[in-house]
Design brief:
The strands form 5 sheets. Strands 2-3-4-5-6-7-8-9 form an 8-stranded parallel β-barrel, surrounded by 8 helices. A 3-stranded antiparallel beta sheet has the order 13-14-15. It has 17 helices and 18 strands. α1 (25-38) packs antiparallel against α11, α2 crosses α3 and α7 (177-190) packs parallel to α8. By secondary structure, it is of the alpha/beta class. β17 (462-470) and β18 (473-481) form a beta hairpin. The protein folds into 4 domains: 3-277, TIM Barrel (Alpha-Beta Barrel); 293-318, no CATH class; 325-382; 391-508, Double Stranded RNA Binding Domain. The structure holds 3-methyl-2-oxobutanoic acid and zinc ion. Residues 14, 169, 171, 202, 204, 234 line the site of zinc ion (ZN). 3-methyl-2-oxobutanoic acid binds at residues 14, 139, 141, 167, 169, 171, 202, 204, 515.
């Protein structure tokens, strides 16, 4: 019989710790709703004590999610637990995820505690959390480099104190699959009261082995896998949800496991997370990369045309990859657009639909045939949850190999004022960004700029993704347009509005609490 594996998604917590991936409350709620459609068992919605923004996000996710367990992270600190419990109050199924380091490295350098002190602290945090909720997960940070004897002792004691899930993270992504599998087997076989808890795997990808390590954990008795959409997360990221789930599904003969994941929702979730975080998916990424189902060699193409399974082990439809179709034109009405959008899983309110339709007509005028990918880009642009402090009204550039690139922009400011300014730069985009800077006055560095075509063809929409840095904070911006200069200007405004959203309301400031 297949063993049930619980999928714990931490895109909104560990994933959001990726540089520049920060999401606002509305974006987190949108992702949480999609994660629920995807069928994850647990949504880790944030680290409530880390900032008022995280606290509010956890509260709002609790209101939006009915089916999945909603989890909040804490350090093994009484105040953290109190704050998490408060944030989780509205959840149908709340879970507090608390814990502390177990490796001598973390105890000595980070926590400056003895093993005994850390053990006491962990037990006290679990007991305290159990006063609020029945479901308490305990993480043993840096398990991968810990002494297994001490680790097993901590596991036994926190279970006695009431922990219901035991998380064994390979925090630094140091382990090999064989070692990690052995560590999970040690916990499962050696801890006398382990039958009272679920063992969970949480792997980082520093050596590219997070998915393999998680699967090795499953093979050795773990029943919960912690992962993120597109594998985003600290440094090289976390275990990728889509890879671990599809590995278990495609190789069910080997793993003999089952999850509740609706795999047809995978692609859409991947696109949503990529759009909202601005973290692009590498083209050769397993399962959701643009090339995952592309066959370029003649021999392979020939094989796939004769029989798909010659070179494809996953049917793209199984992960919800839509067949790209020419579907709408300028003559398609609002109803046809709404119908196709809902087939693609976008359920817009009237106001959003108005904006999307207006933009659709402009795009359809320019490129005649509008593909699903175009619709997806238009929806991402027009339904962005970022508060608009400055709105781009006009952009005009002059450039060429014998002229000085010059740009003029017109923006609507916070009080409704219309401001126009110009500047020159090393190229058209530089000139646009300088002209915008003259108005918005928020010094920052552009640290990443990428541009890609949404579909094939010379008339394709260009999608620009950028990252800007101000101090230690990174903000992403994303936008599409048939003109690459306009797309670049819009992406910059998107990032700047995020920045302004963060720097203006004091309630959104991170208070710099770290795990
Ligand atoms: O990687 C890790 O150890 C973590 C814990 C906070 C669960 O993310
Ligand atoms: Zn982690």
């Amino acid at each position: 019989m297949a063993t049930r594996i619980y999928i714990f998604d931490t895109t909104l917590r560990d994933g959001e710790q990726s540089p520049g991936a920060s999401l606002n409350v509305l974006e987190k709620v949108e992702i949480a709703r999609q994660l629920e459609r995807l069928g994850v068992d647990v949504i880790e919605a944030g680290f409530p004590i880390s900032s008022p923004g995280d606290f509010q996000a956890v509260q709002e996710v609790c209101k939006a999610v009915r089916d999945a367990t909603v989890c909040g992270l804490t350090r093994a600190v009484i105040k953290d637990v109190d704050v998490a419990a408060e944030a989780l109050k509205g959840a149908v199924r709340p879970r507090i995820h608390t814990g502390l380091g177990v490796s001598d490295n973390h105890l000595q350098y980070k926590l400056k505690m003895t093993r005994e002190q850390a053990l006491e602290r962990g037990v006290a945090a679990v007991r305290h959390a159990r006063r609020y909720v029945e479901d308490v997960e305990y993480f043993l940070e840096d398990s991968g480099r810990a002494d297994p004897d001490y680790l097993c002792r901590v596991v036994e004691e926190v279970i006695k104190a009431g922990a219901t899930v035991i998380n064994i993270p390979d925090t630094t992504g140091f382990m090999t699959p064989e070692e990690y599998g052995r560590l999970i087997a040690t916990v499962v076989n050696r801890v006398p009261n382990i039958d009272r808890a679920i063992v969970s795997v949480h792997c980082h990808n520093d050596l590219g082995m997070a998915v393999a390590n998680s699967l090795a954990g499953v093979m050795n008795g773990a029943r919960q896998v912690e992962c993120t959409i597109n594998g985003i997360g600290e440094r090289a990221g976390n275990t990728s949800l889509e890879e671990v789930v599809m590995a278990m599904k495609v190789r069910n003969d080997f793993f003999q496991t089952e999850t509740r994941i609706v795999t047809q929702e995978i692609y859409k979730t991947s696109r949503l997370v990529s759009n909202l975080t601005g973290i692009l998916v590498q083209p050769n990424k397993a399962v959701v990369g643009a090339n995952a189902f592309a066959h370029s060699s003649g021999i392979h193409q020939d094989g796939v045309l004769k029989e798909r399974t010659t070179y494809e082990i996953i049917d793209p439809r199984e992960v919800g990859i839509p067949e790209s179709k020419i579907l709408l034109t300028a003559r398609s009405g609002r109803h046809a657009l709404q119908h196709r959008l809902s087939e693609l899983g976008f359920h817009l309110n009237e106001n959003q639909l108005d904006k999307v339709y207006e933009r659709f007509l402009k795009v359809a005028d320019q490129k005649k045939m509008v593909y699903d990918e175009d619709l997806e880009a238009i929806v991402a642009d027009e339904t962005s949850a970022v508060h608009i402090t400055y709105e781009l009204l006009q952009v005009q550039v002059s450039c060429g190999d014998h002229s000085i690139p010059t740009a003029t922009v017109q923006l609507r400011g916070p009080a409704g004022e219309i401001v126009t300014d110009s500047d020159h730069g090393t190229g058209p985009v530089d000139a646009i960004y300088r002209a915008i800077n003259r108005i918005v006055q928020q010094p920052n560095d552009l640290i990443e700029f990428s541009i890609q075509a949404v579909t094939e063809g010379i008339d394709a929409l260009a999608e620009v993704t950028i990252r800007i840095r101000q101090g230690n904070d990174i903000y992403t911006g994303r936008a599409s347009h048939s003109d690459i200069c306009v797309a670049s200007a819009k992406a910059y405004m998107h990032a700047l509005n995020r920045l302004l959203d963060r720097v203006t309301p004091a309630s959104q400031q991170k208070t710099l609490e770290h795990v």
